[in-house]
Amino acid sequence: MEQRQDAIAERHRIARRIFDAAVDRAHPRSWLAAHLPPPPPQGRLILLAAGKAAGSMTQLAEAHYLDTLKLSPERFLGHAVARHGYEAQTRHIPMLAAGHPVPDEGSIASATRALELAASATADDLVLVLLSGGGSANWVAPAGALALAEKQAVNKALLRSGAPIGEMNIVRKRLSRIKGGRLALAAAPGRLLTLAVSDVPHDDPAAIASGPTVPDPSTMADARAIVARYGLSLPPAALALLADDASETPKPGDPAFTGSEYRIVARPADAIAAAVKAAAQAGYEPIDLGPDLEGEARDVAAAQAARAKELKAAGRRAALISGGELTVTIAGNGRGGPNQEFALALALALAGEPGIVALSGDTDGTDGGGGEATDPAGAVIDETTLARARSLGLFPAQSLAQNDSTGFFSALGDLLQTGPTLTNVNDCRVILIDPRSDS
């Protein structure tokens, strides 16, 4: 028994090392400096940063421009915002904290300041936008008569709907003065460069932080169809905006994008590749399921559990690795997130299968939760998960039905707690399969 427990504990450590390799590859210290542009010859460098990586990116940009390039501070200005707990200690660029996933007053103040700075740009200036996931909630500028409380109600309705992030953002863009390319409109005639960290499947620039600096290919009809499809109950001010064709976003070909450039500088695929390499170094055959998985968390868990059992039956010591962003359709009143729900559904589907350990976590360090920096990143399971739960009087299927994966894993002590990672390239799931359960 002791040997078995030691083997399980070692697999836990390996799974965490693989996950950490993905997060390390995604951190801006690994890549940002190589992408930072030279400052403009005469004008100002206006830095605008938003999202979960905004703090780390702003710190690195400050060091690059002020220390390495010796740019005069008078020519370097801007504003940065990240979710509460993700802000960094900047020394020149002011930084605020804002709500996520539900926006707050910090979101309003930050979007207002970003729009003001962008609108001040002249043809001699360079507007450098450092963008990452979470920017949708961190930059909120309600359109029309929409108030903050109503915008919060919209976000909550979208989060509970089970809609993929791309569809959520299609709706959000019609309710905003900054999303869907409108920050680019404000920045013209200044030159605009966006360096983005992708947290969305297929790295769609229009979906990353709701695409504030790129033309929006989606339509008002798309937004209305999404509201109808999910039966969303929205405030009257939001419905009025969605009914008004004047709320449409700028499209490809708009002159505002003529002087604009957009580069994705970190992708989920980069992090998954690092995880694959770490799994191979640990002696596992890596099986890369891709960085762009989508779908209901419990359905994906059932499919991956079946794949893991097949690999074990074939005698393969393997690591199933996948990224992407899963969804949870909320039917209960518990606490959790897609990674924790995936882990709980996976444990039920594996039914105590020996020799399998799995970790599912969000590379940003928080999975669902209440918007606190202390929220868990995900959870870990193994062959003992269900038995230990029963010994504590827990009912896994009931916890899953109530969407209470946080409560379940908290009681077991199996939450993945990383704290804020200051980056965000979506989820990383690792399933380790050892054909010999005592190996």
TrEMBL record:
Q: Which residues form the MOFRL-associated domain?
A: 15-242
Q: Which UniProt keywords apply?
A: Kinase, Transferase
**Domain called MOFRL: residue spans:** 319-427
**One CC-aspect GO term:** cytoplasm
What would you give as a GO molecular function for this chain, any one? glycerate kinase activity
Query: What name has this protein been given in UniProt?
Result: Glycerate 2-kinase
Organism this protein belongs to: Bosea lupini
